[in-house]
Amino acid sequence: MLDDFFTRALIAGIGLALVTGPAGCFVVWRRLAYFGETIAHSALLGVAVAILLDVNFVFGILVCACAIVLVMFYLERSDTLPADTILGLLCHSSLAVGLVALAFFPNVRLNLHGLLFGDILGVSRFDLIVVWAGGAVALGVLWWLWRPLLAATVNVDLAAVAGLRPERTHLIFGFLVAAVIAVAIKIVGVLLIVALLVVPAATVRRFSTSPERMAVAATIVGVASVVGGLYSSATFDTPSGPSIVVTALVVFVITRILRPQQA
Hints:
By secondary structure, the protein is mostly helical. It has 12 helices and no strands. It is 79% helix and 0% strand.
């Protein structure tokens, strides 16, 4: 079964959606879409680091993304610049530095289009192991963080008074998002991973009566978007990664039409 590239793509996409659903809920609740975009844009710098160290691209992207998270948290606490300005600085700077760094490796054959837009049809059995094993770890960490992260999302001060250490929780969640993005780069690419985090969660937000139900519903929408996007890609001969995001967008638009008013 795993010898078929389309089956591997389905399994990889579903494994990713199981994580981006609940993680994306916190991205939406905490208004961290630009934060995710910043981490995603650092991926090209991570690729350059991976080439320099001769390690797997996922490892290089993860190391670089975690470094960006640490720099961002440091600047937020030691600089007078607003958070969105810091994110804008890191986002575009890391992308530019990554592109310049890659220019120093002219002999390395690099599928830049695949990095930007993903190559889910090219996932290997090893990629499946990385996606599902990493996803299981990510879900375990998210389950452990659920209560303090939810409390910090509602009210940071109350979470601190309750001894839930919201700053540490926020930092760990930042590393978690970095790990998810590092694993997802091959599937949907740098430019589309944040959409997969945000769109399913935004789609189900008005229909959900509790955080847990929203996480489950976002996961279902994510899985449906992966399956629908891959089959539409095969039918209409369109790029797979963008097709997945477009499918999620279509579901979002349909829900807005069916229920235009906030419940």
